[in-house]
Design brief:
The complex is a heterodimer of chains A (about 250) and B (about 250). Chain A is an all-alpha fold. Chain A is built from 11 helices and no strands. The two termini of chain A are about 20 Å apart. Chain B is of the alpha/beta class and about 250 residues long. Chain B is about 35% helix and about 25% strand. In chain B, helix 7 packs across helix 8. The chains are: A mainly alpha (about 250), B alpha/beta (about 250). Chains A and B meet through helix 7 and helix 8 of A and strand 6 and helix 3 of B.
């Protein structure tokens, strides 16, 4: 085992212990920073509460739906842009412009347009997760090696053969990199939209508990949100390893 | 479609926006007979690769005519196999799947072709590696797989663009010998581009000597050395004489 593999978890344990000691010594107010043991109590409360799963489920659903709709639309747009030159020339500057815009500013507008329910959260998740996938799809499709195109041309391959047998698999690693980023972003989108206004969801729990000064519960929800993000990311990593299996060599040598 | 390759007064100029037009080839004429092994040799930038792509229909000449047999070359043809300096194997396909790529593209029956592909892989010494992925193969083995992908479609003409240029000297010599063996068995027309004079003389019936700026043909040297050829041939004074003759043409041009 590497030094990091031992020292990294050890440092976390030390931080938690010091944190707990500081709280017990009443160096910080529990309203500012609850003790780890208190956060643990919060987690127990959450996971035993009958109302908790529906919040987790709702935020997960918003994130995944936004990610899926946004991802599919983004890949489609990327494919069209690469294949229809003029379309790309017209639209690409706007894609880049939207990419640099902090899209969370749109959350209040989406609430106005799509209401307090799940729709506005999905739209926010789409808006924030869309562009990395578009750009990575375009970059991936355009990274086809010149000799590989020549090979397909020498075989008199049709346009669809060139796409499915060469361009699409060539682009997949890049598309997956975009999808991994955008899944995390979709979760952010859903949470931000919930912060603005919502009846349910993990983002709502965070704002509600904050107002009620139940900081230990806020921390507990933050841990749940982080775990949710980790699980989703891990799932994407797994899919990537299965689907883009030929890229393994880049990591294992 | 076994036929002679005729290149008549072919010029090729590349012009892209904002740059000075590049004259890659000027007034090139070459005749290649069916079943011949012809090598194009010359320094970088002499247009030998461009000429190869023109013959393969992968580029259009700016002027002049190229024909194969009775028909004019207007685009790529499925009777012509092309091999590049890089193996261009698809990393998501196994060796066998890579070799079968042309079969899929042509829409041919896969089962019969699979047997044939296995035979060819045996011929090039890749038996037992059919299920391997390209990254698991050495550079030499990757080029063998690329050669198999060309052979699987039974081309009457094979165009090779410095196919062994990226390999080490030993592997390269072995590949040359194997290429000669396969060619003698099957009798395709081979057009082979290289910047190695000894490789050109060793392999070819005729060596087309080219020079740069603009790319043009300096001379065509016949190499009537006996076949089958072995590495021992390189020791012979006849071989040395031919290699020197080619070198002289290239030297004169300086």
């Amino acid at each position: 085992m590497s030094r990091g593999a031992v020292l990294s978890p050890l440092s976390l344990v030390m931080v938690i212990v010091l944190w707990e000691m500081a709280c017990r010594a009443e160096l910080v107010s529990p309203l500012v920073l609850p003790a780890p043991s208190r956060v643990w109590d919060g987690l127990v409360i959450l996971f035993t509460a009958p109302w908790f799963p529906q919040h987790v489920w709702l935020t997960t659903l918003e994130t995944l739906l936004g990610f899926l709709i946004g991802g599919v639309a983004a890949i489609a747009l990327g494919i069209v842009m690469v294949n229809v030159r003029i379309f790309k020339e017209i639209i690409y500057p706007y894609v880049v412009a939207f990419q640099v815009m902090p899209k969370v500013v749109l959350a209040p507008i989406f609430i106005t347009w799509f209401g307090f329910g799940i729709e506005s959260k999905i739209v926010m998740a789409i808006a924030i997760s869309f562009f990395p996938v578009v750009i990575n799809t375009v970059v991936g499709l355009e990274s086809v090696e010149e000799n590989a195109s020549l090979l397909m041309r020498s075989l008199v391959a049709s346009r669809s053969q060139v796409f499915w047998k060469l361009a699409w698999p060539t682009a997949l690693p890049s598309i997956f990199a975009g999808l991994k980023t955008s899944l995390t972003l979709a979760l952010i989108g859903a949470l931000v939209a919930e912060f603005v206004t919502a009846k349910d969801g993990l983002g709502t729990l965070i704002t509600t508990f904050s107002f009620e000064l139940k900081v230990y519960l806020v921390f507990a929800v933050i841990i749940v949100v982080s775990a949710l993000g980790l699980v989703m990311y891990g799932l994407m990593e797994y899919l990537e390893r299965k689907i883009v299996f030929w890229r393994r060599s880049r990591f294992t040598g | 479609m076994l036929g002679a390759i005729t290149v008549r007064n072919v010029s090729k100029t590349f012009s892209t926006e904002g740059t000075v037009a590049l004259e890659a080839l000027r007034e090139v004429s070459v005749e290649i007979l069916p079943g011949q092994f012809v090598a194009f040799v010359g320094p970088s930038g002499c247009g030998k690769s461009t000429l190869l792509k023109l013959i393969g229909g992968l580029l259009d000449p700016s002027s002049g005519h190229i024909s194969v047999g009775a028909s004019q070359v207007t685009g790529p043809s499925r009777g012509i196999g092309v091999m590049f300096q890089t193996p261009v194997l698809f990393p998501w396909r196994t060796v066998l799947e890579n070799v079968l790529l042309p079969i899929e593209v042509f829409g041919l029956e896969r089962r019969a072709a699979t047997e044939k592909a296995r035979d060819i892989l045996r011929l090039v010494g890749l038996e037992g590696r059919e299920g391997a992925y390209p990254r698991e193969l050495s550079g030499g083995m990757q080029q063998r797989a690329a050669l198999s992908r060309v052979l699987v479609i039974d081309p009457s003409i094979i165009l090779m663009d410095e196919p062994f240029g990226a390999l080490d000297e030993f592997t390269r010599e072995r590949m040359n010998l194997e290429l000669l063996r396969i060619w003698q068995e099957r009798g395709q027309t081979i057009v082979f581009v290289t910047h190695s004079i000894s490789e050109a003389v060793f392999l070819a019936d005729r060596v087309v000597v080219m020079d740069t700026a603009p790319g043009r043909v300096l001379a065509v040297v016949d190499v009537p050395l006996p076949r089958p050829r072995s590495i021992d041939l390189m020791k012979s004074p006849e071989f040395a004489g031919k290699a020197f003759e080619v070198r002289e043409y290239l030297g004169v041009a300086r």
